[in-house]
Amino acid sequence: MAAAYFSKFYKKSKQEKVQALLEAQILTSEDEQFLKETPLLSDGLANSMVENQLTQYALPLGVALNLIVDDKEYAVPMVTEEPSVVAAASSAAKLIAQAGGFETCITKRRMIGQVALKAVPDTTHAQKQLKLHKKDILNKANQAHPSIVKRGGGADDIAIRLIEATEESPEFLVVHVYIDVQEAMGANIVNTMMEAIAPYLELLTEGKVLMSILSNYATECLATATCRVPLNLLKRGDLSGEAVRDRLIEAAQFAYADPYRAVTHNKGIMNGIDAVVLASGNDWRAIEASAHAYAAKSGQYRALSTWKKADNGDLLGSLTLPMPIGFVGGSISIHPTAQFSQRLLGVKNAKELESVIVSIGLAQNFSALKALVTEGIQKGHMGLHAKSLAISAGATDHWIEAVADELKKAPHMNLETAKALLDKAKNNL
Ligand code: NDP
After folding, report:
1. CA of 192 to the centre of ligand 1 (A)
2. What dihedral angle (degrees, nearest 10) is formed by the CA atoms of 116, 118, 122, 124?
3. Total of domains in the chain
4. End-to-end alpha carbon distance in the chain
5. Burial group, residue 148, by CB count within 10 angstroms (0-12, 13-18, 19+)
6. Ligand 1 atom closest to Cα of 182?
7. Which long-range contacts (CB under 8 A, 24 or more apart) does 37-40 make?
8. Atom of ligand 1 nearest to the CA of 289
9. Active-site residue among 351, 381, 385, 387?
């Protein structure tokens, strides 16, 4: 464990933090140099990434420590504008590490491409034709992107879905193609394949293609993290381990039953997941869209995680969600900070990255639920929020900490109080 290097990590200066990570052999001297340089993209690169580029928008990258996933320890890069997210992930990871950490299970990385056909004259005949020519469809898809086949992936199956007509929409015959995208997220690979097979599907069905596109509902690319927390690690103040466990389980049940709570519960999970997805240079909108659709798979929007009592009384947590991230492709290989994130994490492939991300999601969820059912969420959150308020009030350097400390004791923690405290502190000089 690298934990020995990380005692009171959050209290260290930035240079001391880097030094601790160097000593723990998580960072190299090349990384140290990278961190000293301006973390901006070159203008040429920024220009090639988006259209009409004017400037760049900075967000902090923090590191969550002590995360054990499948017996390996990780230092996890997280990019977010929200205070307390990195701290909550770190503290949950540290607690769960004492119980052995997280275990994960990752499915095959298959994405789904859709070709939607309309005005098919005989859908029964069309479906027969599609089934009969499945091999040809898969061959044509694979011929459109042969390199993914050479890498061991490619299109390997189809499914046919008939979407019945309603008052609001006509009938659609939809062909799904399942594509193993290996180490890529696969959007461009899949879209290329779908556009390539579209004319052939028109021929087979005598229908008209409306669109050919990846589905972001990645139900064939799922990641699951589980953890087991013994009661001695759950005790909090006057509350026994049993009481915290039972309250946490009830909180999860509430989020299962009530969509109003489920959205907030899942937002907390996505606090962690988005931050790592963003740090790794991945498409966080794809992860968000897929996660929320998966949360509603039963027909009602529900909590993505479950918390239960084990036979021996331990608390058992589990989180499953689609995780269509890439380890290569998109802007991952061209964005220098995304490359730094990969080095910091030390992950070797997309599946390992999925394991870390889903575990951070469960850690984040544990932290939020534990706080909610014990001291409440505001104590920890507002402590960190105090710093943001101090900065908004105009505090710089050592004034930030000084104003934040006074703010935490104030009856009303808001911008007005922060400004007053800053004035008072400066006048007392
Ligand atoms: P790319 O278009 O960059 O394709 C990935 C490339 O990585 C492949 O073409 C492949 O090159 C190369 N590669 C190298 N090694 C491997 C490997 N081991 N396994 C797989 N590929 C490898 O990215 P994606 O197709 O992954 O698309 C992701 C991007 O698409 C993201 O930026 C996303 O934002 C964007 N996007 C998303 C959409 C959506 O979500 N709906 C829609 C459109 C775009 P080679 O050809 O040599 O095999």
Report:
1. 11
2. 30
3. 3
4. 45
5. buried
6. 19
7. 39/336, 39/337
8. 40
9. 381
- 339 in the same domain as 233: yes
CA 271 – CA 273 distance, rounded (Å): 6
Report d(CA 106, CA 369) in Å as an integer. Answer: 25
- CATH code where residue 135 lies: 3.30.70.420
| Cβ < 6 A, ligand 1 pocket | 147-148, 151, 182-189, 214, 216, 283, 286, 326, 328-331
Mean pLDDT of 111-131: 98
Return the pLDDT at 45.
94
Alpha-carbon torsion (234, 240, 246, 251), positive or negative: negative
Kindly state whether residues 149 and 298 are assigned to the same domain: no
15 located within any domain: no
* Amino acid identity at 69: V
Sign of torsion over alpha carbons 279, 284, 286, 289: positive
CA-to-CA separations, 8 to 12, 46, 272, 330, in angstroms, rounded: 7, 37, 21, 37
Single pTM value for the model: 0.91
Rg of the chain in Å (alpha carbons)? 25
Give the residue carrying structure tokens 């920024």: 46
Positive or negative torsion for Cα 55, 57, 62, 68: negative
Above 80 in pLDDT, residue 38? no
For residue 414, give its domain range: 380-427
pLDDT at 428: 78
